[in-house]
Amino acid sequence: MDAGLEGPSRMPEESSPRRTPQNVPYQDLPHLVNADGQYLFCRYWKPVGTPKALVFVSHGAGEHCGRYEDLAQMLLRLDLLVFAHDHVGHGQSEGERMMVSDFQVFVRDVLQHVDLVQKDHPRLPVFLLGHSMGGAIAILTAAERPSHFSGMVLISPLVVASPESATTFKILAAKVLNLVMPNMSLGPIDSSVISRNKTEVELYNSDPLICRAGLKVCFGIQLLNAVSRVERALPKLTVPFLLLQGSADRLCDSRGAYQLMGSARSLDKTLKIYEGAYHVLHKELPEVTDSVFQEINTWVSQRTAQAGAGSPP
């Protein structure tokens, strides 16, 4: 089964079919239409039998949900229905590349997709899995519906901005630039800091769906706004979570992991730090990635069993 071509469109088609940024008609792809009328490319990984739970995967800035195939396949083997979409301005979804009018659009679209899938599976527990910017989206999504989600897996989530890119001077400069040159590029993400695994860095660099245009000032402002919102949301967070973080992460500062552990009210919260590891832990050196997959497998298996036991017959 090709996960990328699974699932029907939920909306009627227009006479002139809308196309992805890669010029593929959306009518040939699984997709949803968000509240702004933008078409979002979706992926579904469905188990053969009845799923035990639902897992929404939220990708990071500049990338796309297809990069989570390995994680999705692992969760699929646990009889979970895994689903995802490319956020607005990313991958095969509409929107100017790495641009969003408000960070809340990302959160709103996740909730819409969760609601769509839950219509077909109303009794199943729902989990969130988010990486980097997708981690911030997951945190804000869980905070918006405090009792809705059964658990959350966070891989290097955006909680504290990188000290290299978010000095007081740079933040002030970005706010000024946003008023006069919001579309100015702050430069592309340095691929050498995403992973110590050279093969994974090469795959990242050769991926045609990765946005290489560089972080624009206006998008940087939205990420700073997201960090502020996450900070305010943490004391209200009660969802169980597993938090995985590399100590040498230069994109999402590891201080954020400790802040999240200290501020969240969740009674069930687990932190694992990988010494020397970079940002994309699920595509790191084999010993790190193997451990990350095992940690997620064990944690989700246990929480799925608990959530299933507590659900109505």
Could you describe the 3D structure shown?
The chain is of the alpha/beta class and 313 residues long. Helices cover 35% and strands 14% of the residues. It has eight helices and eight strands. The protein has an eight-stranded mixed β-sheet, with helices on both faces. Helix 2 (104-120) packs across helix 3 (133-144) and helix 3 packs across helix 6 (217-233). The chain is globular and about 55 Å long. The protein starts with 30 loop residues before the first strand and ends with a helix. Residues 1-9 have low confidence and may be disordered.
Notable features of this structure?
disordered N terminus; alpha/beta; 8-stranded mixed sheet; single chain; 313 residues
Poorly predicted residue ranges: 1-9
Distance between the termini: 30 Å
Instruction: Characterize the biggest β-sheet.
Output: 8 strands, mixed
Computed Rg: 19 Å
Shape from CA axes?
Answer: globular
SSE layout:
Layout: E1 31-33, E2 39-45, E3 53-58, H1 69-76, E4 80-85, H2 104-120, E5 126-131, H3 133-144, E6 151-155, H4 168-180, H5 198-206, H6 217-233, E7 241-246, H7 255-263, E8 269-274, H8 286-310
Parallel strand pairs: 3-4, 3-5, 5-6, 6-7, 7-8
Antiparallel strand pairs: 1-2, 2-4
Summarize the structure.
With 313 residues, the protein is α/β, with parallel strands linked by helices. Helix content is 35%, strand content 14%. It has helices spanning 69-76, 104-120, 133-144, 168-180, 198-206, 217-233, 255-263, 286-310, and strands at residues 31-33, 39-45, 53-58, 80-85, 126-131, 151-155, 241-246, 269-274.
